[in-house]
Specification:
318 residues; alpha/beta; D-Maltodextrin-Binding Protein, domain 2; 2 domains; 6-stranded mixed beta sheet; 5-stranded mixed beta sheet
């Protein structure tokens, strides 16, 4: 028995030493960071800057891969079939916490993702083309009431925050809109400037088109007005008690070693503090929203509960 115990102890010691050496050597090759939206939008542009900063700190490139669709949930789903070695990371948008309430899945968004850190959130709003007969929010609501189901609007995907928040707005106002989902901000911008939809609900990836005189902002969804669009009222100013900034961060497969998670957390936290990242966020009225691994895990638990209530309120639960 004593000999068996000594063997088991030796095996355990070697395993611990191996894990420690692995963490110490990490990363020994490039890291992949999978983004939930297409290239060219605010998520892609800001996360590429963050990845570039983190790669310099880690001593290995952090390579961004775009995997749009399914309401921004594909990167998180990818983590369920990826080795837990820290070499594949994923952006985790808010839509991930709605997934079990709308789709049959065999994994748990709270338990089956290792939450590394939260990095930022979005500034959202609703825009129309500048040549639209709808000149302000009151006219938008009046048109929708007079033409039930005919006012078409696009979002960055079914069950994303722009989609669900717009539907919540519509429910509160007693109007019916026609939702058209797109894969991301770039596709959505093409649709609205091409005259395929009447309005768009999106993050402020629409800012360049507003500045170019092609789009008009009807409202924004933060606690206060955005510096870029001081004339656009918030939802709260319009009598709707809604604030949406949709925080998102970075996750890894569930069983990623704690030492590797800490190394990734520390590198990305430092990458967030680099002025280049803050400047990239500023282009879209986004700001750093740091949560450490413990805080981000608690946020995941809390959001999982609150998103259930929202999905049920809108009658979208499976």
């Amino acid at each position: 028995m004593r000999r068996r115990h000594l063997i088991q102890l030796a095996v355990a010691t070697l395993a611990a030493a191996s894990m420690g050496a692995q963490a110490q050597a990490f990363p020994a090759k490039p890291i992949k960071l999978v983004i939930a939206f297409p290239a060219g939008g605010p998520t892609d542009i800001t996360m590429r800057q963050l990845a570039d900063n983190a790669g310099k700190i880690l001593g290995q490139p952090v390579i961004v891969e775009n995997k749009p669709g399914a309401g921004g949930t594909l990167p998180a789903q990818l983590l369920q079939s990826t080795p837990a070695d820290g070499y594949t990371l994923a952006q985790v948008p808010l839509g991930v916490f709605r997934l079990p309430y709308t789709t049959k899945i065999n994994w748990d968004p709270v338990k089956d993702i290792n939450y590394i850190l939260n990095v930022t959130g979005y500034a959202f709003g609703i825009v129309v083309p500048t040549d639209s007969p709808i000149k302000n929010w009151n006219e938008f609501v009046a048109y929708a009431k007079a033409n039930p189901g005919k006012l078409s609007y696009g979002s960055t995907g079914t069950l994303t925050s722009p989609h669900l928040t717009t539907e919540l707005i519509a429910q509160k106002l007693g109007i019916q809109l026609n939702h058209i989902p797109y894969k991301g901000s770039a596709d959505l911008a093409q649709a609205i400037t091409g005259g395929h939809i009447m309005a768009a609900a999106d993050s402020t990836g629409f800012a360049p088109l507003v500045k170019a005189g092609k789009l008009r902002v009807l409202n924004t969804w933060g606690e206060k007005r955005l510096e870029q669009f001081p004339d656009a009222p918030t939802l709260k100013e319009l009598g709707l008690d809604i604030v949406q900034n949709s925080p998102f961060g970075i996750g890894a497969p569930r069983d990623t070693p704690p030492d590797v998670v800490k190394k990734l957390h520390d590198a990305f936290k430092k990458a967030m503090e680099d002025p280049s990242y803050v400047q990239a966020l500023n282009r879209y009225d986004m700001v750093p929203m740091y949560m450490d691994s413990a805080q981000y895990s608690r946020f995941a638990q809390d959001t999982f509960r609150t998103e259930k209530a929202l999905v049920e309120k809108l009658g979208l639960a499976k």
